[in-house]
Amino acid sequence: MTILTPANAGVSLEDLLAAKEQRAQRQTDWLTQFPHTLISLTLVTPGAVKDSVSYRQVMREALGAAETLLLQRGWAVLKHAVFWLPTGAEAFWSIEHPAPEVKAATVALEQSHALGRLWDFDVICPEAGVVGRRSLDNASRRCLICDVPAHACARSRRHPLPDVIAKVEALIDGWHRTH
């Protein structure tokens, strides 16, 4: 069993909201500096602990998978950065390629990798904004535990947090067993 040992003691809601605002500002800054498609990667990390040895491994795997994807597709990367934060790791890529095609590729990556369910690739078009799954006729993310849309379970807190964290740990453990 993976123990999500915190690199920090956990973060507050205020910390998470501030981090979200800072990420949005960084995204705006990047889109201003490089008016091209922006990929913004974060992890699905339920609970107060957002930075741990296990989560860093998951992020490193996501970074490698994204780099492989970009290289295989031959998409020009104008800028790339990774931010290892107490509120969770984040990564950005500025890409010279149409956002809808980039979103389709990142959704396929999330759906095909054993850890992909824990990755959250947002793709932002400088003209049209965030490219959602629905714009590609893809269903919204599903709950980690049941098969309803994830946002519905999260909002209603349908599943106890320890159950959701256990599911995340099981996904990570399953990946470790095969690698």
The helix count comes to: 5
* Main sheet: strands, sense, barrel: 5 strands, antiparallel
In spatial order, strands of the major sheet run 2-3-1-4-5
Distance between the termini: 15 Å
Query: What is the helix/strand order?
Result: HEHEEHEEHH
Proportion in β-strands = 15-25%
Q: Per the principal axes of the C-alpha atoms, what is the gross shape?
A: globular
Instruction: Classify the helix fraction into a percent range.
Output: 40-55%
Oligomer: single chain
Overall pLDDT metric: 89
SS-derived structural category: alpha+beta
Number of strands: 5
> Low-confidence parts, pLDDT < 50 over ≥5 residues?
1-6
Rg, nearest Å: 16 Å
Q: What can you tell me about this protein's structure?
A:
- There is one protein chain.
- The protein is α+β, with helices and mostly antiparallel strands.
- It is 45% helix and 18% strand.
- The chain contains 5 helices and 5 strands.
- A 5-stranded antiparallel β-sheet has the order 2-3-1-4-5, sandwiched between helices.
- Strand 2 and strand 3 form a beta hairpin.
- The N terminus is likely disordered.
